[in-house]
Amino acid sequence: MLSAEEEFAHEMAELRRNYRGLLLNMLTELNPLRERLIHGSLSKAERELIILKSHQFCGTGSSYGFPEITQTGRTLEHFLLDFPDATPDDSLIRFDSFLMAAQKTIDAII
Amino acid sequence: MAELNHILCVDDEPDVLFLERRTLEKIGKFKVTAVSGGLAALQAIEEVMPDLILLDVMMPEIDGPATLDMIRENPKYDDIPVIFMTARVRVNEIEEYINMGASGVIPKPFDPMKLPTEIKTIWDRSHVVC
Lengths: 110, 130
What we know:
The structure holds two protein chains of two kinds.
Chain A: H1 4-30, H2 34-38, H3 44-58, H4 67-82, H5 88-108
Helix pairs in contact in A: 1-5, 3-4, 4-5
Chain B: E1 6-10, H1 14-26, E2 31-35, H2 38-48, E3 52-56, H3 64-72, E4 82-86, H4 91-100, E5 104-107, H5 115-126
Parallel strand pairs in B: 1-2, 1-3, 3-4, 4-5
Helix pairs in contact in B: 2-3
């Protein structure tokens, strides 16, 4: 008979598959903003969307077993909050790291 | 010491709420009520009178601190400990949350296997008789 912990660990596999769907949706929302970020033409609402998404996924990545999502999300969120006048290049490095971590996680979840 | 049985979880992100509920029910063996915002939380408190509230800080419309203010307006709920959960944890913010009347702060992302123990620890601390 499985312990509660073992049962929960099995359940986590299913939860991770759901999380994959959330990551895909996030990429669909954020990928189109990349060009605008490069050209420094993000609107306030678009910038806030990036902050919100990085915050949300920072807060969940490690819970699902994906610390890279948390780390890159936290870095991006803090950077955008702390340096509102940063150059597009500086923001882009962190933005790309976050999206790459998301894509890597999506590819890793079967 | 009072026993912790029923926890009200409040978070606007469905996947977080689901994960909290599953770990607290399965691993912690607690009864859980889960709602997605501040107003729903106020209604749920009246209906179920939870032993403890796990409250997300950053929520649209009414955030965690505003929800806590509204909870504390009713003296009936004075004894219900509130634990904030937040992904934006900086030292001064933790202090602010405690000063607002929170019994503790649990950073996100949380470890699902450890969350029940973390909550129980804060619960025990808030019920120490001096």
